[in-house]
Design a protein that fits this description.
Length: 119
């Protein structure tokens, strides 16, 4: 089981992301905006259009290079996000299976474990 931090500004989407993460058997934690929270997780799912989330992701890449990073946004990726080398970038709306697969693949790449197959 992985620990996944979720940083999403919209409450309804935040709840949906937490549900999907939990359904995969992982522990979902909602971001309080602190860098310290990132030290205790295996993956970070964020909306990079939120300036605070983007700043947290930049901090994570600098200090925690092994952290799995999955971006979800209504906008196509842009250079500032691409510089973070996210493990996945999903454009909303996306099928929930895509999030499940992206998170499983990102965690597998970062841990070296085989990717889990979403059901």
């Amino acid at each position: 089981m992985a620990r996944v931090l979720i940083c999403e500004p919209h409450a309804d989407i935040r709840s949906l992301l937490a549900f999907v993460v939990g359904r995969l058997g992982h522990d979902a934690t909602l971001s309080d905006g602190s860098c310290e929270q990132l030290r205790d997780v295996d993956a970070f799912v964020l909306e990079p259009g939120d300036a605070d989330a983007l700043a947290l992701a930049a901090w994570a890449r600098e200090h925690l290079p092994g952290l799995a990073l999955v971006c979800t946004s209504i906008y196509p990726s842009w250079p500032e996000v691409e510089a973070l080398h996210p493990d996945a970038y999903l454009v909303k709306p996306f099928p929930l299976l895509r999030l499940e697969d992206a998170l499983a693949d990102a965690l597998a790449r970062r841990t070296g474990a085989p990717a889990a197959v979403a059901t």
